[in-house]
Amino acid sequence: MMNKSMSVPVTAYIGLGSNLANPVEQIKSARTAITQMPRVQELGFSGLYSSPPMGPQDQPDYVNAVMCVATDMLPLDLLRGLQSIENIQGRVRKGQRWGARTLDLDILLYGDQIIELSDLIVPHPGLANRAFVLYPLYEIAPELRVPGKGLIADLLAECPMDRLKKS
User: Fold this and answer.
1) Residue 113 · residue 98 · CB < 8 Å
2) Is the pTM of this model over 0.85?
3) Cα atoms found within 13 Å of the Cα of residue 142, Cβ hemisphere only
4) How many domains does one find in the chain?
5) What is the Cα–Cα distance from 66 to 48, expressed in whole angstroms?
6) What is the pLDDT of residues 141-160, one digit of tens each?
7) pLDDT-derived band of residue 162, with 50, 70 and 90 as boundaries?
8) Known catalytic residues?
9) Are 101 and 85 in contact (CB under 8 A)?
10) Which of 40, 45, 87, 38 is nearest to 68 (CA)?
11) Tell me, what CATH number does 109's domain have?
12) Structural domain that includes position 96
C-alpha cells in the first residue's frame, strides 16, 4: 500500500478562483477549508484580484487569489482534497472549459516538482501566461523560481496586467 504522505513537508501554491454565488465569500470559505485539511498549513495568501473570464464572455468577472501551503500530502491526495472542497462549495462540472463556476482550485506548484499525469500537471499549464495567477503569486513569493519556466519576476515582466484589478 502506498504511503499517503511524504515525510518532509513541501511548499505548494494553490490558485483559487470563483465567479458565481458571491465569489469573495467562495474564496474566503475555500481558504478556511484548505487550512482545515489535515496535514496542510497556510504559509501565505495573496490579496484578491478581479479579472474578466478567459473563456465565454457572457459570464461574470472572476475573483482570484493564490495561497501558499506547507503539506506532506502527496500531490494527488492534495488534488483530491481540493476537489472535495470544490464539490462541497457547489462546483458543478459540466464539461465546458472555462465556464462559470462557484469555485476552481488548482495546484499551481508543488515544491520544485514537474508532474505530468492524466489528471494533474504541475506547474499548472497556464501559469506562465495568466495575469490572474502570476500577479497574486508574485505578491506572496517574489523570489520564486517556477520549475522549467524560470523566475516569477521574469514571467511577470512578459505578462501584462490586461484588465486584472487588485480588490
Assistant:
1) no
2) yes
3) 1
4) 1
5) 8
6) 999 999 999 999 999 999 99
7) confident
8) 91, 101, 104, 106
9) no
10) 45
11) 3.30.70.560
12) 5-166
